[in-house]
Amino acid sequence: xxxxxxxxxxxxxxxxxxxxxxxxxxxxxxxxxxxxxxxxxxxxxxxxxxxxxxxxxxxxxxxxxxxxxxxxxxxxxxxxxxxxxxxxxxxxxxxxxxxxxxxxxxxxxxxxxxxxxxxxxxxxxxxxxxxxxxxxxxxxxxxxxxxxxxxxxxxxxxxxxxxxxxxxxxxxxxxxxxxxxxxxxxxxxxxxxxxxxxxxxxxxxxxxxxxxxxxxxxxxxxxxxxxxxxxxxxxxxxxxxxxxxxxxxxxxxxxxxxxxxxxxxxxxxxxxxxxxxxxxxxxxxxxxxxxxxxxxxxxxxxxxxxxxxxxxxxxxxxxxxxxxxxxxxxxxxxxxxxxxxxxxxxxxxxxxxxxxxxxxxxxxxxxxxxxxxxxxxxxxxxxxxxxxxxxxxxxxxxxxxxxxxxxxxxxxxxxxxxxxxxxxxxxxxxxxxxxxxxxxxxxxxxxxxxxxxxxxxxxxxxxxxxxxxxxxxxxxx
Length: 477
Known about the structure:
The chain has 477 residues and is an all-alpha fold. It contains 17 helices and 2 strands. The protein starts with a strand and ends in a 10-residue tail after the last helix. Residues 1-11 have low confidence and may be disordered.
């Protein structure tokens, strides 16, 4: 028995499975909630703490970057210290950082303080998420595992869909700090649930290395900062070129270091499996576009259209509900038609068309004209990822599925970081300098970000059309 506990009489007893799913659902929900709630909070935070547009973007960027960098570190820690201890550490770190975000000071200290604790919050999320599905999969027998994972995903989606309205109401009545402080009771409940589940699993063992994680942090940090800074310095500025080139070279050396290591941080050799690489690349691109439209769509509603916080939250519901609907439809289409191309191509075509239509409607400043593109983009971006996740797990050997999941999650979050940095650079380049200093984005600058998202989705659609296998799903072979 992998998971067990001993009663006072010394008899082993099974873990409380429902508590495990509830704990993982709360953890996933907190991370999902962050994507929507923080987007709603960006404008109030910037106004209250007198932050620039650059820092406003960076509040989301450092969190996403920390998640991508530390996800493989979380996997390494789970082998060394055990799944349960790693999850508990991540949850505690996430809750602590959330509380500290809510206590951010004003004045000159606001910027470094908030960016630091947001990075720590991202580290906590990175320690939690890779462990969650593994814990559920190990606790439940195969015949009941699918339903348990569906419940876990459903709980997380409830948080995600409720995020815009919940965040808007909290900020409107209690201020922006409340959206961060709200994670504290949810996190406490998560830790209580996993403790009450009585789950035990001995760690597999393994060494923790600092060299590879530090190399990843340094190289990705330099590259993404350089990418983002080009919106302020300019693409041809010496400082921009130096950062991007240095970061790219450092990243190439880091990849070489990981590949040659006897104990690699992540198993990059999995990317030699063509179907897996195609699926991961498409997922990377979808996440890049999704984070762009989530952040910039929210800011556009709030700043360019001058909507109240509750109205902004309600106006985002078609997008997040569309994402949830697409996510739930994805598995059904894959199972029913036995073809990855159907959910992937249908979703990406809808997402590309929707993002383009939404982009075209932005200059009108009329919400009804934006609604069709918003809904179509949401459903379209939700459709491909779950089906791609199922297919990529089938494309790798069973013994490599944990490593494959870590690589996928790392690159997915990295996609969000690079997408947001690229779109942010475009917006900063278009936006007026005075507005940048005031933490505002003009109505004319936001379409630039949406054009980046539309282009990224178009590339994903082209890649899927050319590279995804035709015929029946891999599950049938």
